Amino acid sequence: MARQYFNSQLVDLERELLRMGALVEDQLRAAVRSLTEKDSVMAREVIAEDDRVDAMEMDIERSCLTLLALQQPLASDLRIISTALKIITDLERMADHATDIAQITLRLENQAFIKPLVDIPEMARLASSMVRLALNAYVHRSTDEAATMIRLDDDVDHLYAAIFHDLIALMQQNPSAVDQGTHLLFVANYIERVADHATNIGEWVIFMVTGERKDMND
Questions:
Q1: CB within 8 A of 136, min separation 6: which ones?
Q2: Which residue, 60, 58, 73, is CA-closest to 2?
Q3: How far apart are the C-alpha atoms of 80 and 60, rounded to whole Å?
Q4: How far apart are CA 40 and CA 102, in angstroms?
Q5: Crossing angle of helices 75-108 and 2-36, rounded to 10°
Q6: Using one digit for the tens of pLDDT, what is the confidence trace for 109-153?
Q7: DSSP assignment, residue 112?
Q8: Is 74 in a helix, a strand, or coil?
Q9: Is residue 67 part of a domain?
């Protein structure tokens, strides 16, 4: 009976973690959309929702610590719980980056863009896909899915490099573009960091399944 209860608690933990992940995905998409559409209302909603993400992180952390304190988990159980604790930290930081992007939306809402925003939304789409795939790998306990997801980080990095070089060139040609260009560079950097956090989740999934910690960000 104790083991059955423990397993049901693990299922509940997984469900809450996926709910948090879905919210963070929504936050990232909304933040970038608020920027591309200059939607200050949406940006403020993203900023307001960050408190909800923080609360979910605290609730899941509490559940993890309760499982560790009240049960006698096996080594595999300990890896599942410790992985959940690591994942929620990465998800919370992703939500922070979505908030950062939304705040830039508010700073730029009255400005014409110095260039069409094409690569930034594509970069965000890839990063959001990485988050979803990372969580799927966690649910499926799949190292193959985790490794496949991690490889997408190269595509994100390539887009980031292209955005960086384009914006630097624009700012060099037009000093009046420096302020907005700098903010857009920050946006691209925040999205790149989201992809890095998704990669972290993939690494933790691999650890959870194999017991080996590998750095895939090199």
A1: 142, 145
A2: 73
A3: 13
A4: 8
A5: 20
A6: 999 999 999 999 999 999 999 999 999 999 899 999 999 999 999
A7: -
A8: coil
A9: yes
Q: How far apart are CA 214 and CA 7, in angstroms?
A: 27
Q: The domain that contains 116 carries what CATH number? A: 1.20.58.220
| Within a domain: 11 | yes
Distances (CA, A) of 120 to 125, 162, 167: 9, 10, 11
11 closest CA partner among 90, 65, 89, 67: 67
Structural domain includes residue 218? no
**Residues near 36 by beta carbon (within 8 Å), at least 6 away in sequence:** 117, 120, 121
Quote the number of domains for the chain: 1
How many residues in total does the chain contain?
A: 218
Contact 84, 11 (CB under 8 A): no
Residue 38: left (phi > 0), alpha (psi -120 to 50), or beta? left
Longest dimension (CA), the chain: 70
**Percentage above 70 pLDDT, the chain:** 96
For the segment 30-84, what is each residue's pLDDT rounded down to a tens digit?
Answer: 999 999 999 999 999 999 999 999 999 999 999 999 888 876 767 778 888 999 9
Q: Which domain holds residue 161?
A: 2-210
Phi-psi map region of 63: left, alpha, beta (phi>0 left; psi -120 to 50 alpha): alpha
Rounded distance, CA 18 to CA 63, Å?
A: 14
Does residue 215 lie within any of the structural domains?
A: no
